[in-house]
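Reopening this one. Same input as before:
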Amino acid sequence: MAWSGVVVICLTSLIGLPLTYSVNLFKDNVSNPLIILGIGGVALILVALLPYLYTRNTDIPKRDPYFYAWSLFAFACVVDLIIALENDRIIHSFMAFYLLEGEPYLKTTHGTFINYWDAVVHFSLYIYILKQDSYNERYRKAGLYWVGSITNSLLIILPAGLIGEYGVRWPILLNMPYLCIPVWMGYKFLTNAPQHQTQYKSDSDQRGSQPIQQRPVDLMFIVVFTAAIGVHVLRASAVLGSPAELAKNYLQQYEPYLTDGVAFPKVQMLLYLFYFVPYYVLVIFDLLYPSGQSWVVDWSLIMAGASGEGQFSFIGASIHPYTPAASQLPQGNNLLFWVINGALFIVPHLYAYRCVTMPTKSEVSTVHNGRAVLELSDSQDKELMYDKRDSSADITESRKYNLRNRRNQ
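Same output, byte for byte:
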């Protein structure tokens, strides 16, 4: 059946349940961080190898070069869900050994919400991506959102593990594949993009001919992104110990979690300052003078994923009852906290949605790397990037496979 790839990856990811429980039974023998690193490395190889061994002797159509990588990430989702549930004391005796000797910073509330996001949002994206591939459809937009989301989480975990109060241990190296692979995939997504520029530029030219006062949606985004720049500069100044009264008051009265000793919030604020602020400046300029460049659409998805993951983890850790009392959200000052952090979560998603749905007014034929490209509707994510001559054998193989399975049912 067409969903065979999804089923294989999901079943492989469930290995995390018996594996973590079994290893925890021998936690006294695996307390050495180097042993934990070795066990983790073997587990990652096994998880990537099992789908290969299954699909090697089957006729499941193999179109996605990243098929085996999705197995690694889905496995990590199951393990992260176990960590999050164990941190919240819903389950026990699965990852105690790892949280003590492997990556102890993950047992913080911020680490808990990073794991929840990975277990729920990222796993859902993997199911969608595998489903799209099973039906020979594209998943580039979902891939770009995922790249931004998972890259932000790793750029928080790795530096915070190095400078936080828990210190760094050898098992932190198990995160490296989960950083390097998304960066490589993001590069491929960006460089092998279908050419939407003709249609997007036409719409941008139409908007650019109008003054900003006659474009209320663009004006709203400009105002919000300008305010976001100010908030990011203020919060970064606060975590860096600025002597300014405004920074001190904001830190004490509204977001004391920024000074938490685990260093997760500090690293997140610095990422906002050095990456989000320049991005918002470019977006504001593009809203004032629409360029029609395709990077606007691509990076809106990447930054929406990054802001979603970052804000979800930050908000959750700020209000979680297991966060130290001195770092929790103060009572009586909740409104400003929710307005600021809610806007930083929602608005990048609204902007990405607008960028993605903007070029939907006509069907456009373009040429991508010398091959015919038919773009049916960008908002529906059904562009076909296959050359008719090159893809016919692959599509025929898929149809024969599905027909054969229907007859066997």
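So the earlier flakiness isn't reproducible anymore. For the record, Residues 360-395 have pLDDT under 50 and may be disordered.
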